[in-house]
Amino acid sequence: MTTPSPSPHLQSLQSQKVGSAVQGAAALLWLPQAALLAWAVQGLAYGRGLAAVWWPAGGILVLGLLRAACEAWGARRVFAQARAHLSILRAHAAAALAAGSPLDRARVSSGLAASVIAEQAEAVVPYLVHYQPARWRVMVVPLAIATVVAGLSWVAALVLLVAAPLIPVFMAFVGMSAQAASKAQMLEMGSMNAFLLDRLRGLATLRALDAVDATAQRLGESAQSLRRRTMAVLRIAFLSSAVLELFSALGVAMVAAYVGFHLLGTLAFGTWGHRLSLGEGLFILLLAPAFFEPLRDIAAVWHDRAAGEAALNALGQMERHGLAFPGGHAAAVNAEPGVAHAHGAPSVTMRGLHFAHPGEAPLFGGFELRIAAGEHVALLGASGSGKSALLSLIAGLLPAARGEIEIGGVPMTDRTATALRQRIGWMGQKPHVFAGSVEANVALGRSGVGAPQVASAVRLVGLEAVAQAHPGTALGEGGVGLSGGEAVRLAMARIAVHADAVLLLVDEPTAHLDTETAAHVADALLALAFGKTLIVATHDPVLASRIGRVVNLDVELLERAA
Ligand SMILES: Nc1ncnc2c1ncn2[C@@H]1O[C@H](COP(=O)(O)OP(=O)(O)OP(=O)(O)O)[C@@H](O)[C@H]1O
């Protein structure tokens, strides 16, 4: 995965500003339109007939078209840039997730990550599309209108300016609780998704152990809590709009009352010494609602702002998690391309290796092991002695605290890990089978792996007799449709198609298999490992007896401790 450079990120924000500014400028066109309208009405009132209307009507029409064009152009541009910006944010979050060790226990749960990146992130678009242009308008339009109105009547301008600040003050007050409410709503949505995904994956266990009702009840409670939080967000959204409507209606009414009484001669002050004409009074009246309109717009999109900022926060959180592992950052990819071109089975050397899972007791404290090129080694040891951890360290899927791991004489570092991993075939203890066909599961979309390679790998591991392995047959999620032994053989076929894999790291390939199937799997593994370096973690004495060298981790670790 490539990390997008910051320049498109900045570019999209820049274009966003241009689009918002054009929309803001379009709103200002109401000033000349209102002036023309007031002029036309004054002309009619003073008996100039239809002749007084044609020119202003034409002007209003032209300005109206210009305004619509500016708004449409600005809106299109802002929308396109918002979507581009969202893609960049998603790519950053996904890259950050990919940079964390896949074996990190504290990794963000898949459900939460999917909810934030796929669903919650969408709230960024309305935020950028509606809130940002509204923010521009609110900064420019009321000030421009107040200045123009002040030129005609300082009293009318004063009324507008007194009513206006009450609105941002109140909005800031509402905004704090709106953001907190949106954040709580998104958290609830994320944790409900995470819970749902996890339980759906374990449905067979829940069903078999009669725990479906309890899970459904917990899900129901979670849905109720989400409903309450959504209602809280909506309540705040409605409250903020209602308050704004009230203030702006009061402001417009006061301006209208003043202008009306001024034209009648009752309130003769506030106009720099001259009486307002009918046209001027009407002009002020037409501008008063437009003064409050951007403020009302911003209230309408206040909820978008709260939801958008909460989504940005949630996306930011994705970037903060993760136990870094060698070469996990996209920037490290192929930093040392020469490593990838090395050929032949590599040696593996571990020197002074220290490792502990975060927050746990050390598993290795100065571990040493040398494996010759092409050697086959069985790792034995009690359950929990760290066999899987050692394989993951060699594969560079976990970071060593100290010490060195060398593969074919190349130390595993951030710069070399990606290239070294290309020479490794890794099969974990619980291979994940994706929903889809066996072919797709074996090929995993890797380049250079076509149908012929998959077919010969399937034959090598003895899966060709399995009906589900036939072309066009789909497996369910998590490998539903395959037996445990078949799933292990499928995982082995993934290594078999990996032509460059010259170091095979295999974790308990024969666990839970009957003697006959275990013998088949062992045959396939040894055939696959011919001419390659092989390290197998196992509890199976039969398999261990077929491997050239046995390393007992318990003994090794005890000797080092002594
Ligand atoms: N991702 C993880 N995060 C934290 N601790 C872990 C993690 N995986 C395993 N552990 C712990 O690390 C220790 C070593 O686990 P590991 O799986 O390497 O042992 P193992 O020798 O392969 O065991 P087994 O033979 O049962 O497969 C165990 O105590 C285990 O609880």
From TrEMBL:
Annotated ranges, domain ABC transmembrane type-1: 25-307
UniProt keyword Signal present: no
Pfam families, sorted: ABC_membrane, ABC_tran
SMART domains in alphabetical order: AAA (SM00382)
Residues annotated as transmembrane: 53-70, 138-156, 162-182, 236-260
Origin: domain of life: Bacteria
PROSITE patterns the record matches: ABC_TM1F, ABC_TRANSPORTER_1, ABC_TRANSPORTER_2
Assigned keywords, A-Z: ATP-binding, Cell membrane, Membrane, Nucleotide-binding, Transmembrane, Transmembrane helix
InterPro entries: AAA+_ATPase (IPR003593), ABC1_TM_dom (IPR011527), ABC1_TM_sf (IPR036640), ABC_transporter-like_ATP-bd (IPR003439), ABC_transporter-like_CS (IPR017871), ABC_transptr_CydD (IPR014216), P-loop_NTPase (IPR027417), Type_1_exporter (IPR039421)
SUPFAM superfamilies: ABC transporter transmembrane region, P-loop containing nucleoside triphosphate hydrolases
Primary localization: membrane
Cellular compartments annotated: Cell membrane
UniProt domain ABC transporter: residue ranges: 348-562
Annotated protein name in UniProt: Thiol reductant ABC exporter subunit CydD
Recorded name of the encoding gene: cydD
